[in-house]
Design goal:
Layout (H helix, E strand, L loop, with lengths): L1 H30 L8 H105 L1
Amino acid sequence: MEKLNEQTKTYMRIGGYILAAIILIAFGCFLFRDIPNNGATTNDVTEQLDTTAEQQRKAEDTIKSVQSGLDDSERTVDNLDQSNRAAQTTADRIAESNTNIANAVSDAQSSNSSSAAILADSQSRITECESILQEIRAGAGKAAE
């Protein structure tokens, strides 16, 4: 009985190997079969790949164009910022000059007021001196008579 079991096991092993070999042969035939090329499918795939490559090139060109535009915009913003700073500096200088001019005008007006007061005082003294001179002349004329 034991011998029968060993023979059965041996036959089963051999049957398993044969079955595995048949499966492997069938699988190999399936993998390495000739796929017919009818041309249309290959051409369609080639055209789609070419279209995809062309679209990718166009997208890259568009991206480069957008990047160039962004770079130009950044330079323009920097230039505008520099111009604004220069204009602000100029405006500050003008404001300082206006303050200096206002101070100079105020000083000139003050000097004019002082000069007017001195002129009025001088005019008053001249009038007084003329009056004294007339009195002296009148007194000298009476003494000569």
